[in-house]
Amino acid sequence: MMSGILDNFSKFFDLHVLIATLSNPSNWMIILSLIILEGLLSSDNALVLAIMVKHLPKNQQRKALTYGIWGAYIFRFIAIGIGTYLMKIWWVKLIAAGYLIYMVWDYFRGTNKEDDDVNVAIKKGFWATVASVELMDISFSIDSVAAAFGVSSQVWVLFLGAVFGILAMRGVAKIFVTLIEKIPELETASYILIAIIGIKMLLGLINIEISNVIFFLILIAVFGVTIFIHKTKKNSSEHEYE
């Protein structure tokens, strides 16, 4: 087991693996899918983290968030290296698929503990706040990493998706938040995709594989239908007020 995990980590430092990953167009489709999922699932997370460091002096706020980003990258590096090996074990894959389906059920049930998490971090000192930001980043990462494992098993695909996804979350969080505010159905669509990923993992247990191209087309179709539903609802509501 340990040799398998170490072999996975060695792929992070293998230039040939990286080149092979980047030269495959279907991998870029999956990386883009992971970035979109990360951005939508974590759209409000960057704002939550901003609230957590708000009590610090301005020069310390950026520093605390930067430490948080590096913590998130290190966690992803470790989780992907270990997780891509463990996901080859059928019962681990079954647990991961069950967790994704639970996430979807929890979302539609309406559970939300973010406010409690933010309140815990308020009025702490710098390093205590950094620790809270690190823990929050890790908790945010668990859902995204679990979903990512259902999409690909290639370490560089997962890590590049995570790197760009985290940058998207921090850099354009307000854009994603605004997008979800304008089209609130997108949040639901992202959880529908998570359910599809969970089903994809379960199908993999009985040797039914969904290709990267088909998954990417499903992603486009889900968001396309979501935007169509939003416009239809918007038009019908406008007609009611006329």
Brief overview:
The protein has 242 residues and is mainly α. The protein has 12 helices and no strands.
Percent strand: under 5%
Number of strand elements: 0
Rounded to an integer, what's the Rg over CA atoms?
Answer: 19 Å
Please give the largest β-sheet: none
Q: Which structural class is indicated by helix and strand composition?
A: mainly alpha
- Count of domain modules: 1
Report the principal-axis shape: globular
SSE pattern: HHHHHHHHHHHH
Mean residue pLDDT? 75
Low-confidence sequence ranges: 113-122
Could you tell me how far the N terminus lies from the C terminus, measured between alpha carbons in angstroms?
66 Å
What is the overall number of helices? 12
**In percent, how helical is the residue content?**
over 70%
